Amino acid sequence: MQTIEMKRIADTEYRLIAQIIKEFGQDVPATGLPTDEVYNIFFNILSKGSEKILILILDEIDQLINKAGDDVIYSLIRMNSEINNVQLSLIGISNNAAFTEAMDPRVKSSLSEEDVLFPPYNALQIKDILKSRAEIAFFDNVLENGVIEKCAAIAAREHGDARRALELLRVAGEIAERNSLSKVRLDHLDEAEERIEKERILDIVRAQPKQSLAVLYSILVGFFFYRELTVKNLWEIFKKSVVSTGSILIIVGVSYLFGWIIAQSNIANKVGELILSISKNPNIVLLEIMIFFLIVGMLMDPLAALIIFVPILLPIVNSIGIHPVHFGLITVLNLMIGLLTPPIGYLLYVTASISGEKVERIIQESLPFISALLIVLLICIFWPSMVMYLPNLVGR
User: Fold this and answer.
1) Across 109-159, where does the E strand assignment appear?
2) pTM surpassing 0.70?
């Protein structure tokens, strides 16, 4: 009988099988081989050996399945039907007793698993663990009387987590060391507990996407700085947010639908043919593209417009001597202006939805800005040397 215990370093299917192979004394590259080939190497090792029972212990198996999927478990179990001289058994260790519920039914049926549940550590057990670790980590008489007992009691109160107790004792020791003290006192445990909780909250916050951080920042500012947010008016704020977001999504959804209609009806190719049929003068072609993209920008999402039309128009502008960078800048600027162009530019309606102003008022106030943007766009079209100055400077 041979027992192999796998740690968390084997967190992918490839790494797991490669690590098992290394336990048998054969080296496998950390990366580079097809996963099937690694399985074949493992299969050949088992096939050549004598009759044995191989017990594979997977620590934190739920993390492995979450990252690598449950196919790796299925492949290992299925080896029992392909190799006659080896019986492979799996022992999975996890803090999540329900992790098998998310597994594929065929994998669960192949496992024929038996659950062995261990109760959380009690205070006495955690105390014994802490004592054995403290003898290694601390000098004699460094821990004040009652520190280990209190640390064990705190951890036992919080689900009996021995790791939590060890972390608490470690942080308390660091606090005493930074304060140049010769002993770890009981009050250091209180300070360590508070510090760990703060770090845990900060870690959770830091891991959030930027948009979630922006929402959190606005909530904190609204509650504590401007004091305009209160618990009473939260419901009304939520309702307004739903209405605003819903109207924006409807507008964006319609623009994507319009893009799909254009793609299906082959309008992009017809537009390219029409542009060249009018004139092959670069300035005239760019003016035609400008007018076209202003209209498209009013009706479609810019990303969809870029994906549909740029592959058609880029060969055309290349054939008449327009630089791709010049064309790209004009295209993006066009589409952005189109989003603001009355009467259909959907950013006008988004702004109206968020601000509560009438669309007519927003159009009226935005006209001077749109005019300025159009002038800039015309300058970019007829003065390409200005647009290309920096690209040419960098390209030298």
Assistant:
1) none
2) no
Can you tell me which residue has the tokens 């009013």? Answer: 298
Q: How many C-beta neighbours within 10 Å does residue 50 have?
A: 6
Domains of the chain by range and CATH? 2-111 (3.40.50.300), 123-206 (1.10.8.60), 248-395 (no CATH)
Half-sphere exposure of 12 (CA within 13 A, CB side): 7
What's the burial of 161, exposed, middle or buried (CB within 10 Å: 0-12/13-18/19+)? Answer: middle
Tens of pLDDT, residue by residue over 215-259, are: 888 888 888 888 777 777 878 888 877 877 777 677 667 767 766
313-363 pLDDT tens trace: 888 888 888 888 888 888 888 888 888 877 777 778 778 877 778 888 888
Per the CB < 8 A criterion, the answer to whether 293 and 338 are in contact is yes
Please answer whether residues 271 and 292 qualify as being in contact, where contact means their C-beta atoms are separated by less than 8 angstroms: yes
How far from 12 is each of 75, 159, 177, 387, CA to CA, in Å?
14, 29, 39, 49
CA distance 306 to 311: 8
Chain centroid, CA 253 distance in Å = 24
**Terminal alpha carbon distance of the chain:** 69
Identify whether the C-beta of residue 161 lies closer than 8 Å to the C-beta of residue 155.
yes
Query: Taking phi first (over 0 means left), then psi (-120 to 50 degrees means alpha), and beta for anything else, what does residue 279 get?
Result: beta
Q: How many CB atoms lie within 10 A of CB 20?
A: 23
- pLDDT at residue 6, as a whole number: 52
Question: Dihedrals φ, ψ of 323, to 5°?
Answer: -70, 140
